[in-house]
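PROTOCOL LOG
Step 1. Enter all chains and additional molecules of the complex.
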Amino acid sequence: MKKIELVNISKKFDNDLILDKINLNVEAGELVALLGPSGCGKTTTLKLIAGLLGPDQGDILFGEKSVLNTKVEKRSSVLVFQDYLLFPHMTVRDNIAFGLKMRGVSKAKREAKAESLLEMVDLPGYSHYYPHEISGGQKQRVSLARALAIDPEVLLLDEPLSNLDYNLREDMQNLILELHNKNDMTTIFVTHDHEEAMLLSDKIAIMNKGKVEQYGSGEEIYKKPVNKFVADFFGTANYIKGRIEKGSFYFNSTKIPLKNQFNELNKNEINTAMIRPENIEINSKVKNGINLKAEIIERKFIGGKLNYRFKLKNGHELVASTFIEDHNILNEECNLSVKFENIWFMAL
Amino acid sequence: MSQRNSEKITKIIQNHKLRRFLLYSIILIMILPLLYLLIWSFARRWPWPYLLPEEFSLDSWRYFFNPSSGALAALSLSFFISLAVTFLALCISIPAGKALGLYNFKGKKIINSLVLAPIIIPPLAVTMGIHINFIRLGLAGRVIGVILVHLIPTIPYSIKILTDVFAVLGDKIEEQARVLGANSWQRFFYITLPLIKSGILSAGTMVFIVSFSQYFLTFLMGGGRVVTFPMILFPLIETGNRPLAAVYSWVFILAALAFTIIIERIFKNKELSKEYLQL
Amino acid sequence: MDDKYEILKPYILLLPALIVLIVLFLGGLVSAIAQSLGYFPLIGLEEFTLNYFVEVLTDAQFLAALRFSIYISLLSSLLSVILGVFLAYQLLKLADDNSFISAIYKLPIIVPYLAATLMVFLIFSQSGILSRILYNLNIIDNMNLFPKMVFDNNGIGIILTYFWKQLPFVTLVVLTVLKNINTSWEEVASNLGANGWQIFWNIYFPISLPSISSAFVIIFAFSFGAYEVPYLLGPTFPRALPVLAFQRYNSLDLSQRPYAMVIAVTLAAISFVLMLIYKKLIKISKL
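Step 2. Run joint prediction.
Step 3. Record the structure below.
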């Protein structure tokens, strides 16, 4: 188990700046997600930690020690690639035992370890199969077992769930959590799916264009995004333009008192209020909040939820979602309310 | 409607039959000459216009196996030279194929053209040019000189084949082995080598066949002192000793064929080879 | 840390190949060019001159040989490519994967040119099997009535040898490409109303054209620069260029050497130009 620190890491490919002075602290034993759209530099970050790439600038520390001069094969980290990359000419058991073989562990010992890992990933009895004889989900399990065989202190996973069918994902999520907890590792994984990130990780580093935009727990980032990019990446949001006057936020004549609902911004920079759709209550007045008249213009049933589109008096549109179907509000003017605490401010 | 359908089906069947007929006749044309050659190898007297030999005999075959004819010695030398060329060409081509298949670097285009150039530009011209230097270095007229000059027409093929193999394989699987702790030698022996095995086999077979059938380069560089199998077959064809030339030709073909088949049988793990590159 | 090594790595891996290609191939080429320009210190020739080129390129014997070589290579390569593409397409359409057929058609690829030469001689010469068959069918009564197809001025025997050896090669190359063409395109095309012939011309042919042309260039260049087949089956006049080159080269009179080298360099130059044209064509077809 080791703490991982990235200090001012930059990386260029040809002349494209892929990573721009990244800083990231992962505490020992934490499970952290690197989240972002494709091309944001998240996989590059993972390869840098594994040592498959070297940074142009900055330092990478495991524990308190720089690992920049430690070769890939000597680092205590293992990277599990997105497409599993099982060695096609080896049986499942030989795949799992591979890392131990490279370290000169005796045949009997490494095979015993492989068998016990196969049990751990729920594939007992598969040791003599070849990779082409097993399914995608099973390959993923084997590649996890192969990584765990060498008792890594740092486990790096590249899009661990993206190649799996939807119904296999939950199993795999649970397995990853279980393995992470059982094996005393620091785990970092890459994903482009915010739900996957929130389900699995203790903390999320959301990345964009070579920078870490925000680093924190999933709940924190969802509720308190630093900017529009982060807010949008985690789901739908309503943005209401306004202005700051005498320490309060105004849009039209509606006043919202400013408390701590913003990041380390200069108060006067604030010009937008963000409201998540599920924080808009329909036809229920709230005391510590805003109440607005609106007209329903669209209503969609999507499984367990109802999505609404409203139009305010001034023409501004808002989206809301509820779990309860309320027939009274169909095609009528209604009242929308949002508690002050559910409003988040930012500078766009 | 059903009649039209059945007409259509008949047409398809006829098409198919025609196709088969065409195919078989073309293939027959490829094969019949070999059988005809075989009959010649057993002829003692076969004057025009007889369709079959007047007299059959094993004389030519006996002569071939007689050590005094030097045929077996020439055949072994041919094998030795071609195996050495194959070994050298593979040692050169595996790293070269890796570089060209996996990396992007300055000058790659020029090097790619240089690699393929000996396929297009006749080795005859090149070898005539370099001959004088080989003489000066004392390489001409020796087996080592012949081996070296055989590399010119062969390595373009082996490098090309292995470049394609590495390009399909990619470098990720080696990276995977690396993060699992394999050093560069371990990666080569446990991962890369087994995975490119079938590519090595095709490249090696290709090199062997090209080197094994080489007449002119051996003749020029060997100066008559390096007597490979083509060196003794050529004058037989030139002088028109048909039965003996037929025997030598058949042995030549059989040797090449046997080599390819044996290599494939020994080294190819059928179960796996198909799956190798599909990961 | 090892970034420097990473940059050098491909060059290090290529080093052995580059040594062979530069020392043997380019070295041989440069040496041939130098000798063709009259630089041959062994017999005291040390001044560069174009005289040998001028002399050879205006020599009637050389021009006849050049014409003969181009004619032989062009005709045999065209024949092989046209029939090879046809054969490949038929093999592709032979739905059931007939392993016997697909093994047997490749056989000539591994047969050495010398053996192929002998077979053509045994079949097509005036005392060959074809002439014997015609006699037994009472079509001819004298072997001299059989058309001269070996040692003839039209190079028929040479062309047949190259054709026999190179047809399977073209077939193999083209078939490999055809097999990798997604069959759903064919389905789309036939769904849009294309018949078999149209499917071939509009789908398979354009996609496999680059490999077809590269196969053509390879076999043309080979036939153009090969010595043994035209030497064994060709007429005394005109000779093929490689035969002429070696004849001059092998002369006891060393002052003939630059003339031989001019022919060799011309061979190389024509092949080189062919390669350039081919590359241009590939580029154009990719646009």
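Step 4. Note key features.
The mean pLDDT of chain C is 89.
The longest helix of chain C spans residues 3-36.
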